[in-house]
Amino acid sequence: MSSRLAIILISLISSGVFLGIIFTNDYSPLGLILGFLTGLINIQWLSRDTKKAIDQEKFIALRIYFKSLFSRLGVITLIVATVGRFRPEWLLFLALGIAVGIIIPLILSIRQQIMHGRG
Hints:
The chain is mostly helical and 119 residues long. The protein is built from four helices and no strands. The protein has helices at 3-24, 30-53, 58-86, 91-116. Helix 1 runs antiparallel to helix 2, helix 2 packs antiparallel against helix 3 (58-86) and helix 2 runs parallel beside helix 4. The longest helix has 29 residues, at 58-86. It starts with a helix and ends with a helix.
C-alpha cells in the first residue's frame, strides 16, 4: 500500500471520528484513531521488511521477519498497555481500530495483487 493511500485512509477515518466526537461529545472514539494508526503502521512496517527480505537468502529473510514480528508486537503491546493504564474506556475502540487498521490495507493489497500482480 502506498503512503498516499495511507494518508487518504487516515484522513477519512479521522474526519469521521472527529465528526462523531463533535456530535456526541464523547472522547472515547479517539481510541479508534489511535488503534487505526497503530494497525496501519504495523502493516506499513511489515511491507517495508518484506521488501527488504525479498532478495535475501532464506535464513536471513526469516531472521528479518522474526525480529520484525517481535518488534511490531512490542510496539502494539506498549500502546495497548499505555491506553489501558491511562484511558481504560478507550480499549474497545482501540481494539476495533487496530483490527480495521490491519484489515483494510490487507484487503487493498490483495485487490491490487489480484488486479496487477504476477500470478
